């Protein structure tokens, strides 16, 4: 199964959530293989998996220099084999445990790369080549490399988590077309609700009169998918990330926004695309508690939350205390999500 983690709004914790979902899923399912494909130029999820701030940055840069990143793969496809697989797809994946002892050995990474925005231009060039199926071959580059990895595992089950940037760039399209299910993280505010709606409107072009005078009537992505004979992922799960409380009771404004988001996800089963097809049969919504300072410890040290101990951890030039009373509520939230995947 391939999960695309995307929201059209930044700052909702996509990369941190991708790290948590992938590591906790891998720990809970040691007989399976888990792969993180980092489709974000900032490469934050790659950095955490490769050792956290500092060590992870150095390791990620080494992968960049060797070309073992998603941008490196796109560049090599463009220069060596624009319309077919290279045959060396497995060489672009790394076992995260080789760089970070905290990561379970069944987790692999297709690293992000700050040159991904430049690689986006290469994708568009391949897409516009004047030959049959050029656009399809361009849009399935990521699907090709992930399928090659899955095939190499033979009988083992492989679960993929694809971390995306907020923008709808060419490489975001690759992530969408490579995915089976869509995970949309958001926070309890109006901007997140707008981001969720943008995701649905961008991908599925709902059949509604209100879009007739909008840009969604001019750029129909669902029609592009149909023309290329590529299926779109199902909106599978909305995650209210960083769920928070104030004096053990959610604030009125926050709670109202959360309810609006949940109502919108619920409404997807009634919304049809331009072809008259239901966008979703039902999209689940789950909450994950705000990690507060735990996220700083995880980001800096590259440690899965379930492996944290009650002690002080280095965070740059200081130390941050982790208490079990902070860890347990987060795990209580994320384990039902893992079981749902």
Describe the structure.
The structure is a single chain. The protein is an alpha/beta fold and 341 residues long. It has a single domain, classed as Rossmann fold (3-Layer(aba) Sandwich), CATH 3.40.50. It contains 13 helices and 10 strands. The strands form 2 sheets. It has an 8-stranded mixed β-sheet, sandwiched between helices. The protein has a two-stranded antiparallel ribbon with strand order 9-10. α9 (190-204) packs parallel to α11 (252-267). It is globular and about 60 Å long. The N and C termini lie close together (9 Å). The mean pLDDT is 89.
Tell me how many strands there are.
10
SSE ordering: EHEHHHEEHHHEHEHHEHEHEEH
**Mean pLDDT metric:** 89
**CATH overall fold name:** Rossmann fold
Q: Main beta sheet: strand number and arrangement? A: 8 strands, mixed
Question: What's the layout of helices and strands?
Answer:
Layout: E1 2-5, H1 14-28, E2 33-39, H2 44-49, H3 55-66, H4 70-80, E3 94-95, E4 107-110, H5 116-127, H6 134-139, H7 141-152, E5 158-164, H8 170-178, E6 181-186, H9 190-204, H10 221-228, E7 234-243, H11 252-267, E8 284-289, H12 293-301, E9 311-315, E10 318-322, H13 324-340
Parallel strand pairs: 1-5, 1-6, 2-4, 2-5, 6-7, 7-8
Antiparallel strand pairs: 3-4, 9-10
């Amino acid at each position: 199964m391939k999960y695309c983690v995307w929201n059209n709004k930044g700052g909702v914790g996509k990369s941190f959530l991708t790290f948590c979902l992938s590591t906790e899923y891998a720990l809970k399912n040691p007989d399976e293989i888990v792969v993180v494909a980092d489709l974000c130029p900032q490469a934050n999820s790659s950095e955490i998996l490769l050792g956290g701030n500092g060590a992870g940055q150095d390791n990620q840069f080494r992968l960049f220099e060797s070309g073992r990143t998603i941008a490196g793969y796109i560049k090599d496809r463009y220069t060596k084999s624009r319309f077919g697989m290279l045959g060396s797809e497995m060489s672009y994946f790394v076992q995260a445990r080789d760089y970070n002892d905290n990561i379970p050995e069944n987790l692999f990474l297709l690293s992000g790369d700050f040159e991904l925005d430049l690689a986006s231009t290469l994708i568009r060039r391949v897409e516009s080549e004047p030959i049959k199926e050029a656009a399809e071959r361009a849009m399935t580059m990521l699907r090709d490399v992930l399928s090659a990895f899955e095939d190499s595992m033979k009988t083992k089950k492989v679960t993929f988590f694809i971390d995306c940037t907020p923008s709808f760039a060419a490489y975001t399209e690759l992530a969408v077309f490579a995915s089976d299910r869509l995970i949309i993280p958001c926070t309890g505010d109006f901007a997140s609700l707008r981001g969720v709606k943008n995701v649905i409107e961008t991908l599925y072009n709902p059949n509604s009169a209100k879009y007739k005078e909008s840009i969604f009537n001019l750029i129909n992505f669902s029609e592009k998918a149909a023309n290329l004979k590529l299926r779109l992922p199902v909106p599978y799960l909305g995650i209210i990330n960083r769920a928070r409380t104030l004096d053990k009771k959610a604030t009125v404004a926050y709670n109202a926004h959360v309810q609006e988001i949940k109502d919108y996800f619920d409404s997807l089963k009634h919304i049809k695309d331009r072809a008259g097809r239901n966008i979703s049969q039902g999209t689940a919504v789950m909450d994950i508690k705000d990690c507060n300072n735990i996220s700083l410890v995880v980001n800096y040290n590259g440690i899965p939350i379930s492996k944290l101990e009650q002690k002080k951890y280095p965070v740059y030039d200081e130390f941050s205390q982790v208490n079990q009373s902070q860890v347990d509520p987060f795990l209580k939230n994320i384990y039902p999500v893992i079981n749902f995947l």
